[in-house]
Amino acid sequence: MSTISIRLNDKDDTLIRKYAQLHQMDLSSFIRQAVIEKIEDEYDLTLFNKVWEEERYQDRISHDDLKKALGL
Question: Is 56 strand, coil or helix?
């Protein structure tokens, strides 16, 4: 297991510690979770943008039209 050190001003340090405490998390777990979520969010957005660019000009049909086509 590795260790990462970050520098924070007093205001940010207090904010982060109080937030973790409010959610009953130890500081290390909170920071790890926040960083992983940030990476996942950015990855999801990148993937969405890629798919959007690939498919945005394709023909689409509404749910109602699909149901009609399927006889539902």
Answer: coil
Entry pTM: 0.68
Sign of CA dihedral 7, 11, 12, 18: positive
Pick from 2, 21, 20, 18: nearest CA to 10 = 18
Sign of CA dihedral 16, 22, 27, 30: negative
Q: pLDDT by residue (tens digit) across 6-42?
A: 999 999 999 999 999 999 999 999 999 999 999 999 9
Q: Does residue 70 carry a pLDDT above 90? A: yes
Instruction: Supply the DSSP symbol for 68.
Output: H
Nearest residue to 35 via CA among 69, 6, 72: 6
